[in-house]
Design goal:
Elements lengths: L1 E5 L1 H6 L1 H13 L12 H17 L2 E8 L2 E9 L9 E9 L8 H15 L4 E7 L3 H8 L3 E11 L5 E10 L4
Parallel strand pairs: 4-5
Antiparallel strand pairs: 1-2, 2-3, 3-4, 5-7, 6-7
Helix pairs in contact: 2-3
């Protein structure tokens, strides 16, 4: 497996694989901001919409590939305000159901953390569905739980679920 940081043309070149990953994640029940009604066109459009943020440096995206197939991704969203340049949000950590259980989620998390440190980021934050497998990953990877917000977002089935906020201090590289 290889993991690469995508520039805007690279993201657009693998948008079909990224869309497949997003669809698998949502249809597998993970709460990553979409409802189960997400279709292929919607997934492709969503990824196309990320290219401008990548080109502008507001978003960094990594894709993990197994051969030609995208099996994982993770992103860092960088704030544009001067008082928040020291932090970033970890977004859309996804691992295809067929690739789970092999440490890919943790490897993607580590990739994002190291890249954040290299960029001078000293604080990362994220939100994840409470009691989800992703929450277990963040907790065991050393992230600190900040709290829970009830009824924060709908899961793919449309049921309102709580979300847990996490943060992690990192040493700038």
């Amino acid at each position: 497996m290889t993991t690469v940081r995508l520039d805007a043309p690279g993201l657009l070149a693998c948008v079909e694989g990224l869309a497949d990953l997003l669809l698998d994640t949502v249809h597998g029940g993970a709460s990553v901001g979409f409802l189960a009604s997400l279709d292929r066109a919607g997934a492709v459009d969503w990824w196309h919409g990320r290219a401008a943020g990548v080109a502008a440096g507001r978003l960094a995206v990594w894709a993990a590939r197994d051969g030609d197939r995208v099996v994982g991704s993770v992103g860092l969203a960088f704030p544009d305000k001067p008082n928040s340049r020291h932090r970033a949000e970890l977004v859309k950590l996804m691992v295809h159901r067929d690739a789970r259980g092999r440490g890919l989620g943790r490897a993607l998390l580590t990739t994002a953390e190291r890249a954040a440190a290299a960029a001078g980021v000293t604080l990362l934050h994220l939100d994840t569905e409470t009691d989800s497998p992703a929450e277990h990953l963040y907790r065991t990877a050393g992230w600190t739980r900040a709290g829970v917000i009830p009824d924060y977002a709908a899961d793919p089935a449309g049921t309102l679920r709580p979300t847990t906020l996490y943060y992690r201090r990192i040493a700038a590289g």
